[in-house]
Amino acid sequence: MTESNSRSEPPSPNTKAEFLRGIKTSLPMTLGFIPFALVLGAQAVQKGFTVLQVPLMTGVNFAGGSEFTAISLWTSPPHLLLIVAMTFLVNSRHIIMGAAFVPFMRHLSKKQSLPLLFFMCDEAWAIGITDCQQRKSMQLSVPFYIGVAACLYGSWVIFTGIGAAVGPLIGDVEQYGFDMAFTAVFLVLLKGMWRGLSHCWPWFVSLVVAGILYHLLPGAWYVAGGTLAGILAALIWGKR
């Protein structure tokens, strides 16, 4: 065995460059995470969570929408079946997102894919797919995606913990408009995936149906209804 082979090879410049590119690309989203991570942490403490329990929850269940839903439904004692059902309903969009992600991960094994899917939040999913489209490639750049996921996941867990710690000191953080960060982040995601008016009909149908169900039905049924309506609209529009 030669001396060069006996040493562990350093990461290739390509891998390191892609990882750093992922971090750089995700920085605007990471900054957008901070305000509503603080909001979630502060709200969780108000519902009786401890400072340690908040980052544990956000680290194990990396999905902000369902965490806000769980916190809003939290009582003492908690209605666990209701919370589990609503959390599943809100997170059901990840089934569709995961299915859309599969064509870009066919070059990976299941052992490689499953950990990556754990870190698939809305923002990481959108950035990953948009990057593939911009590179005109059907293969996800794994180092790039890991850089994106590391920034988003790390900032979410850390700042929900900080929100839990400082929330009682600053009171209701929504009075500063931090809750608008959620909406702003999703508008940025839509801007990045915009491909012209001819492709936006499923979005519009999903928005209208979700808005109607939001006013007619309690809970998070508008999430599933809007998702299914958007899928049906996409199928019909695609055939035309």
Automatic annotation (TrEMBL):
* Transmembrane regions listed in the UniProt entry: 20-42, 54-74, 80-104, 144-170, 176-193, 200-216, 222-238
Instruction: Give the GO cellular component terms, alphabetically.
Output: plasma membrane
How is this protein positioned relative to the membrane? Multi-pass membrane protein
Q: Cell membrane as a keyword?
A: yes
Q: List locations, semicolon-separated.
A: Cell membrane
- This chain's source organism reads Shewanella mangrovi
Q: Which UniProt keywords apply?
A: Cell membrane, Membrane, Transmembrane, Transmembrane helix, Transport
Name the chain's protein.
Branched-chain amino acid ABC transporter permease
Whether Transmembrane counts among this entry's keywords is yes
Q: Which family does it belong to?
A: Belongs to the AzlC family.
Q: What processes does the entry annotate via GO biological process terms?
A: L-valine transmembrane transport
* Pfam families hit by this protein: AzlC
